[in-house]
Amino acid sequence: MIRKFTFGTPFPTEAVVTPCPSESGELPYFSREGGSISCRLAPEIPVYGLGEQVRGINKRGWIYISNCSDEPHHLETRSSLYGAHNFLLLGGDAPFGIFIDYPGKITFDIGYTRGDTLTITPEDWNLDLYLIEAEDHKYTTIVRQFREMIGRSYIPPKWAFGYGQSRWGYKTEADIRQVAENHRKNKIPLDAVYLDIDYMERYKDFTVSKERFPDLPALVSDMKKEGIHLVPIIDAGVKAEEGYFVCEEGLKNGYFCKEEDGREFVGAVWPGQSYFPDMLNPKVRRWFGQKYKILLDMGIDGFWNDMNEPAIFYSPKRLNKVLDQAAAFKGQNLDLDKTNELLGLINTLANNPEDYRSFYHEPGKGRPKIRHDKVHNLYGYNMTRAAGEAFEELEPDKRILMFSRSSYIGMHRYGGIWQGDNLSWWSHLLMNVKMMPSLNMCGFLYTGADLGGFGDDTTEDLMLRWLQFGIFTPLMRNHSAMGTREQEAYRFSNMESLRQIIRLRYCLLPYLYSEYMKAALNNDMMFRPLSFDYPDDREASFVEDQLLLGEGLMLAPVCQQNARGRSVYLPENMLLITTSGPEDFRFREMKAGYHYVEAAENELIFFLRRDHILPLAPAAENVEQLDTTRLRAVAYLSRTGSYQLYDDDGTGKDYENPDHYETLTVSLDGSARRSKPEGHILTAEVFPVSED
Ligand code: GLC
Asked: Is 306 in the pocket of ligand 1 (CB under 6 A)?
């Protein structure tokens, strides 16, 4: 059951797609005091949600602020990352979900100020608040209702489930060819190479550097022959430059955000001084979205949208002010206080709240103009929506890869997200793990982190352990920052181990793709905390570093350097799978309870749940070459079991076609069959569940 309460005059975010009338009565659960609402948190009840955020799966004990931020540190003491996902689920015996559809800054104090109190404070009270309850009191039912309300999650092309290699630092066509060749030469599977800002002409959106990429269409086509897709980046800011067509068109039509006096707001990003398209205006969205055609026409079929919080390095006005004030420090003998003052001054340059308060949007449809900070969290959403709406028009029958850095709930219908500029830290691998279910709750299924870590230097073992987790995330991309240690798989002395793990991704794809598609089509979570499936197991509710993936798997990634195993909690008997690559699988039944499980550095461990089947494909060089006609099934059964496989051409949009489903059946005696007859082979290895 969903109940909606409207306060003031909310700005229509279009996060929700199913109409729901507002109630006029008292808001249950919460008391309202001043600008906040509060509710009591009973001891031990977990609080889940908030999508892309720092800290645990259980969000209790910290203060979080939805305020889309260009935040490269991801420290646990921060309160905001790139997304604003205002959905929470309060667990316990009478769980409920709460979604605050509010595009401005909003604070969630989840037992931080007072351990037993949740306090929610928006900057003003123009918002829609939704409360979601489930008759069966199941967390999964609450989330499903929420997800139905916000609409189907974005579905990428199947090739986007392959391994992608990226680095801010590939500067030329030769660099890209080299990356592709090194993968192929070393037999490391590869489906995509990403083009970071250097492919552009001086960081100008929708241009291609003639000098460094003289013939992009030819490069795209050569790469496609190798089964490799090129995925360029698009930034939110448009370089302010005479003669640059995007800038000129935008200025002529008044498409950029303006200050109070009607002059275009200027902020600096990669290209220097830039304008910001008014993505909240449907006309501007259409204009900006159509620009992707320039690259689509060159054969490109995937994009990543960046810097769309929007990130602002400085505004010229502020820069001048800061430089004037900094001049006063010249020649001074700076003591601690003075040094801090100077550094503080410099720190006010980037992403300054005053700058966000100094420009406006014209949302159209007869709505009055609105100051940016009041709708700040919608910017990245609407940039990605601009592209998504254009793709619908330009390529109605084809899936285009799209993921964004900044997002708001609603954007999940148009693209995925990557988890931004993490660091090559073991704690950020763990954060990647913890973020997956929270993002799934909020509709973001196509997601993953920069594997190996973006900033700072990675290590061979971190790269390997991160890939051992990354082979399960829908977006599997190795990305790193300029100036950091190069981290393509072929750079390391443990290349063979890395290669084998990447190959495993392709073996797992029949399962991963099926589970992704079913989660998207049924509004379910692909990644779940243990408590979602084992609600009565108190121990399970405390587990933060294991996840359920799809119907049959439990993941237990190793997130610690030099570890050769880890402690695992099993809510019930499970089949341990240990593997170092497609040719090496070992199986062992384990009883419910706590265990220490060995995992050598090159070994990945995960678990198959009882009465479930894991289909495995032969390894492949890329998704195109994946052969799903010959499957091997690992089954852990107490009786005959079945698995619903989903497969399609991976590019079309007839998602609901029943032909995409196939049933795999495995019996205890090892006999196995597939419901599609034409030459589809299934061999099974069956492990019987031993009853206690
Ligand atoms: C931002 C992005 C990062 C990208 C860089 C250069 O920091 O988050 O992924 O590599 O910009 O474009």
From this structure: yes
Residue nearest to atom 7 of ligand 1 (CA): 421
Task: Tell me whether strands 450-451 and 62-66 are parallel, antiparallel or unpaired.
Answer: unpaired
Q: Are 345 and 326 in contact (CB under 8 A)?
A: yes
**Are the beta carbons of 622 and 159 closer than 8 angstroms?**
yes
Q: How far is the CA of 70 from the centre of ligand 1 (A)?
A: 10
Q: How far is the CA of 15 from the centre of ligand 1 (A)?
A: 26
CA of 421 to the centre of ligand 1 (A): 7
Residues β-bridged to residue 231: 194
Which residue is closest in CA terms to ligand 1's atom 10? 168
170: pLDDT strictly greater than 80? yes
Asked if 4 and 20 touch (Cβ cutoff 8 Å), the reply is yes
Cβ 234 under 6 angstroms from ligand 1:
no
Q: Which amino acid is at 156?
A: P
| Per-residue pLDDT, 676 | 87
216-268 pLDDT per residue, tens = 999 999 999 999 999 999 999 999 999 999 999 999 999 999 999 999 999 99
Q: Which tokens go with 643?
A: 């698995």
Mutate to test the pocket of ligand 1, among 82, 168, 351 (most ligand atoms within 8 A of CB): 168
**pTM of the model as a whole:** 0.98
Report, as an integer, the average pLDDT of 624-644.
96
Is pLDDT above 90 for 634?
yes
Burial code (b: 16+ CB inside 10 Å, e: under 16) for 115-131 equals: eeebbbbbbeebbbbbb
Token code pair at residue 87: 């959905």
Interval between CA 168 and ligand 1 midpoint (Å)? 7
Neighbours of 189 (CB within 10 A): 23
**Does the pLDDT at position 29 exceed 90?**
yes
